[in-house]
Amino acid sequence: MEPPCENCFVELDEENREVVEMYNLVRTQYLLTPMGDVFGLNYAAVKAILDLYEVKNPKQMFEDILLCWKIEQSIPEPVSRSKDKA
User: Fold this and answer.
1) Is 9 a member of any domain?
2) Which residues touch 40 (CB under 8 Å, ≥6 apart)?
3) Is residue 4 part of a domain?
4) What mean pLDDT is reported for the chain?
5) In this structure, are residues 62 and 23 in contact, taking their beta carbons and an 8 Å threshold?
6) What CA–CA distances, in Å, run from 27 to 32, 71, 80, 82?
7) In the predicted model, is pLDDT for residue 3 greater than 90?
8) For residue 56, which phi and psi values (nearest 5 degrees)?
């Protein structure tokens, strides 16, 4: 997701940095329906990343990653603006 302006930047609290780092590793590990729609996050892929990075509290990290996923999925897609519109 792109920031709303060139100079916009959200400074994360130290306690949230690891969650965001882990979420960025798994955010594209989703399950698709037969029609190609996103169905949900692939929990097995999340667990594999948590194991690989030896996360200290994997249950809490898993819950935090799910919260990030739900938040991101609730953000509407930006409306494209066409230059051809009068």
Assistant:
1) no
2) 30, 31
3) no
4) 86
5) no
6) 13, 12, 23, 29
7) no
8) -65, -40
